[in-house]
Amino acid sequence: MDARHEKALALSTDKRIRQVAGPTWVVPSQSDEATVYLVNVVAASCTCPDFELRRAACKHVLAVEIVRTVTTAADGSQTVTESVKVTRKTYVQDWPAYNRAQTVEQDAVRALLRGVCDGIATPAHPGRGPKPIAYSDAIFGMAMKVYSGMSARRASGDIKACAAEGHISRAPSYNAILASFDRPEFTPILVSLIEQSAKPLASVERDFAIDSTGFGTSTYRRWYDAKYGREMSKAVWLKAHAMVGVTTNVVTSVRVTDSDGADSPQLPYLVESTAQRFQLAEVSADKAYLGHDNLAAIEAVAPCRSSRSRRTARARARPRGAACGARSCFARMSSWPATTSGRTSRRPSRPSSGSWRRCAVQAVHRSGQRGAVQDPVAQPDVPHPRDARDRS
Questions:
Q1: Phi/psi at 379 (5° precision)
Q2: DSSP of 41-85, one letter per residue?
Q3: Which residue has better confidence, 118 or 302?
Q4: Which of 54, 174, 212, 231 would disulfide-bridge 152, Cβ 3.0–4.6 Å?
Q5: Using an 8 Å Cβ cutoff, are 45 and 39 in contact?
Q6: Are 195 and 273 in contact (CB under 8 A)?
Q7: Is 9 exposed, middle or buried (0-12, 13-18, 19+ CB in 10 A)?
Q8: Model confidence over 302-353: pLDDT tens digits?
Q9: Does the model's pTM come out above 0.85?
């Protein structure tokens, strides 16, 4: 803390500092008791000679920024609460470069998209009938529809303009574009295009992060609920697991699952796919990805920087092939000692059915055997301590 901040801290205790109107505050002078200065908290300005000379925050501005509120309790004790103004860091914008990039963005996207679609091959069309739309043209139309942010019908004008400019050989109709989103053979092609478009940044990106995010759809699950006597509905959403470069935020690898897809099993694929085009120096992820298989996948392509951190992570990681099964959760909670204190006595809390089922879902996804886990609420294999006391 410099001398100006120290003087401001001492000046802030002066009870003559008060707010007079809106953002204007009155601050007395420390050298002349008859002089006061006006501080504008919005403009961060002051009428003192120091601010007029330096055009920077003076001790009077700093004293006002430290708002002191003293609360006196019944026993005479005082509580002092200080709030300090935090200035957000800003950056200089290169407006000529920004404006130039914005004005040519659409043309650049069309040219780059045409370049990545050049390598897409269309299977031969056997037999007679109309010739189908080329895979490259269909995927180009899908990408332009999503990039425009409009509906397929409203995006048809942009797609036809791309065909007139020679980016595609044939402009697909909006119905053909919508039908292309439902074609499963396009999924691996789109994933490869994402990976290919990130390859030019291989010399820039060395540190990566992994996480997942959800995407809503226009599909709903509907069912009749006998308990409430009405039809229920729930939106269907998908989960995208992505590996992203921390410098440019480019997506280097992606995998899409349903809404129940676990995060941890996707890490080895994302790491191995990214390692084919990038040199990995560091991989960051939250604790949901902690596991021996994931650590081994990262160590295979990115050396750990600290042996101590590697040992700690391995010690905390879940063993290979192991899952937090519902029965093991029940066994741990059933082993808690029961408390007996008269009327307030209660037996150990059982884990909720929701917690059990979440653990069971994890076990199913790790084992890959759907329907192999029974309902742990209906068939616990560990007797509860109170059950034993009742029988005795």
A1: -135, 70
A2: TTTTEESSHHHHHH-S--HHHHHHHSEEEEEE-TTS-EEEEEE--
A3: 118
A4: 174
A5: yes
A6: yes
A7: middle
A8: 765 544 455 555 555 555 555 444 444 444 444 444 433 333 333 333 333 3
A9: no
